[in-house]
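Async update (no meeting this week)

Hi team, since we skipped the sync, here's where things stand on the single-chain job. The sequence we agreed to prioritize is pasted below, unchanged from the tracker. I ran it this morning and attached the output directly underneath so nobody has to dig for it. Comments welcome in thread, and please keep replies under the output.
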Amino acid sequence: MILMTQVANLFGDTKKKRQLNALLAQKHQNLYRLAYAWCHQASVAEDLVQETFLKVLEKSIDIESLEHLDAFLVKIMRNHFLDIMRFNKRWQWADETEIDELFIQECSETQFIAQQDSECLFKAMASLPFEQREAIALVDLQGFSYQEIAEITSTPIGTVMSRISRGRENLVKRMKQIEQRGSNIVPFRR
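Output:
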């Protein structure tokens, strides 16, 4: 957010700076939430949002005059994210907790906590293929219509509908699998 304010201060007069800062601040949280849903890493999500704002500012587009500003910003962020994925294709993201799980047996209390609904949903969502995860995040988190998603992802609307449908089916299956793995947990008595 600090970089965003510093960059915005380089452009325009005082009134325009305030308007641009306000507009970017409004869009920041939604873009960050979407970026995090795609990559599941806070630093990468923040970088995606910052790069999106920088690209918009570099293009010197009057963003207040755009009809579909949200879709425009998401399309820029998506393209940048795909570029990052292509660049890092040879590297596999590994979370420290995934590595630790190979060597450490979790206690039943830790497994019980991991079974919570929000954690199950997070894990299930993270395990979906990117296309399905992207479509579900755009429709359910951001509230875009199928037509807007088709424009953002440059895919036919039928493909978008298929990805959402299959993604939701896979999400339900994977949440059930995660819940079943934790079903042998006995909660502690007080």
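Quick observations from my side:
The mean pLDDT is 77.
Residues 14-39 form the longest helix (26 residues).
Reply here if anything looks off.
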